[in-house]
Amino acid sequence: MSQLLLRALLGHAVFGACLAHAQLPPVPVPPENPITPAKTVLGKALFWDEQLSSDNTTACATCHIPSAGGGDPRSRTPENLHPGPDGVFGTSDDRRGSRGVVRCAPDQRFTPDAYFFPRAQVTARRAPSAIGAAWAPELFWDGRAGSTFLDPLNQRVVATQHAALESQAAGPLVSDAEMACEMRSPQDVATKLAYAKPLALADQLTPDLSAALAIDPTYPELFEAAFGSRSITPARIALAIATYERTLVPDQTPYDLGTLTPAQQRGLQAFRGNGACLFCHSEPLFTDHSYANLGVRPDADDVGRFAQTQNPADMAAFKVPALRNVGLSPTYFHNGGKRTLEEVIEFYRIGGEFPGPNLDVRFSPAFLTPAERADLVEFLRNGLTDPRVAAELPPFDRPRLASERASTRVARYGFGTSGTGDLAPVLVAPHPPFLGNDRFALGIARALGGSQALLGFAASAAPAGLSIGVQPLWIAPTSWFASVVLPLGGVPGLGGSGFESLVLPIPADVLLEGQTLYVQGFVIDPQGAEGLAVSGGAAVTMFGI
Ligand code: HEC
Ligand code: HEC
């Protein structure tokens, strides 16, 4: 059947239909993982706990924030760019992804990755919404998380159906770009949690979290309340997180409540009619869970679903995203390539930017007048937004992450001076310096490969104007109490390639609370003035949890 005929038929079927809406079906629940209040609140704590990452910097929520529609509010910033398959920043195949961890070895020391070091690594795809993901039989843009959930420890079947959320949740915890140091095992995650104080890094806890923690202040107790015994296992972690996600039901949009404005109603009509959007974004979920190649990028850029099925028909096809709360999303498409809904609709008007041989048969340029396009944008932007998601009200309420508070970060001050390759060394200090953080690491990078660095530690900062020879000094010589000499890795003689780091466990000693450690790095570098290249300063203020 020709596409035009298909489109005409579809147009007929819905033309003149009233604007009644279908109700969201109940959330599918695996029989092996019933929703209970204790499991939900445990899952919420886990989802919002940055201690789930190897280095205490990244929670699931870091990349999935309700007011960003369940996606990553940071995704428009330069720190969240991925260079794409050509490996070069600033070219057309760049993606807007999500920042995870600075790459780290199993012993927590920082280690270079191909593109980002000493900055945090960025995912190669955009973070889709975790809100309203509960209906999908498969998750991720390529559907690689399937509906059967296997125990991450032994691959035994834990849940036979409807368990894509569980399958998905097990992934990021051991991904050495998102939340893990290299070689992290699922058991490592469980073991770390047994000793962590739940949500110790978060503040502004929600009433449900505070109430649960008042009764069960440790993870073993929260797991006992949820699962009947204190044991923390990788499977239980996934079961609890998935349960929490199943309670995030965005069913109070103007579309659901029948409160669409006239413009939004006209937009919905265009969506159902001339836009032919329903071919794939079928109501009421606004997805039929199929995969489609829309020509967002050339096929070779990202093979998408093909990687899972090896079926040529799936080449560069991506999961049809659900559209609730799409108006809150900072970026669109699997590569984050579009920043506004106007840009998305323009993409649909022209019928894709890279239409290749595998373009989906259900897809063709959308015949829409400028007024219809404006109405369509208005429908998508506001007609599908659940106000509780936008305002982060229950069940979408949430604590504040440590990464959202400047006071939990190591502060940088001053500036470095350059050596070989015209690069200045930098201190690498992404970890929150809380009391009892036995994984706190500090590093130096962008130094001369194979050279030596000295890290100086002092109790106070140097008053501006001090220097060693011509080099700026950022730590006070009078309070300088320790120096560590580090042989640098990297390519010997290559400017910028040198790096090394130290793990400095912070004792759980209340006397340290509020104390600040000042650090500066000095690198032996013949191209630096007086044979040195130096970093700026870092102020490490330790905080209690
Ligand atoms: C560093 C950022 C980051 C972190 C941390 C992270 N995610 Fe994601 N999430 C992503 C990206 C990127 C994708 C899409 C990846 C892909 O499709 O290849 C994704 C996909 C998902 C999806 C699938 C949505 C869909 O419609 O397919 C869910 C659900 C989800 N994440 C939940 C979680 C949970 C639960 C955690 C913690 C265990 C987590 N995420 C941690 C970035 C992140
Ligand atoms: C052939 C199936 C198909 C049709 C028809 C279709 N879409 Fe899509 N839509 C998709 C797929 C697949 C994606 C994700 C594409 C990607 O990222 O590569 C998408 C993405 C989107 C997004 C971005 C969502 C996000 O989270 O990134 C919006 C908004 C959207 N579509 C709206 C529409 C509208 C409006 C129409 C009608 C004019 C429409 N779609 C027609 C399949 C379709």
What is this entry, summarized?
The protein has 545 residues and is α+β, with helices and mostly antiparallel strands. It is built from 13 helices and 16 strands. It has three domains: 3-22 and 253-385, Cytochrome c-like domain (Cytochrome Bc1 Complex, Chain D, domain 2, Orthogonal Bundle), CATH 1.10.760; 37-72 and 109-249, Cytochrome c-like domain (Cytochrome Bc1 Complex, Chain D, domain 2, Orthogonal Bundle); 406-541, Immunoglobulin-like.
Quickly list its features.
545 residues, alpha+beta, Cytochrome Bc1 Complex, Chain D, domain 2, Immunoglobulin-like, three-stranded antiparallel sheet, 13 helices, 16 strands, binds heme C
Protein model, in words:
21% of the residues lie in helices and 13% in strands. It has helices spanning 3-14, 37-47, 164-169, 186-194, 207-215, 219-227, 234-246, 254-257, 262-272, 306-309, 341-350, 370-383, 387-390; strands spanning 81-82, 95-96, 149-150, 157-159, 291-292, 318-319, 411-413, 426-428, 441-447, 452-458, 467-468, 471-472, 480-487, 498-503, 516-524, 532-541. The protein has a five-stranded antiparallel β-sheet with strand order 7-16-15-10-13, with no helix packed on it. Strands 8-9-14 form a three-stranded antiparallel β-sheet, with no helix packed on it. Strands 1-2 form a two-stranded antiparallel ribbon. Helix 2 (37-47) packs across helix 7, helix 9 (262-272) packs across helix 12 and helix 11 (341-350) crosses helix 12 (370-383). Residues 1-17 have low confidence and may be disordered. Bound molecules: heme C (2 copies). Residues 47, 58, 60, 62-64, 97-98, 100, 123, 125, 127-128, 130, 133, 136, 139-141, 165, 168-169, 172-173, 178-179, 241, 319 line the site of one heme C.
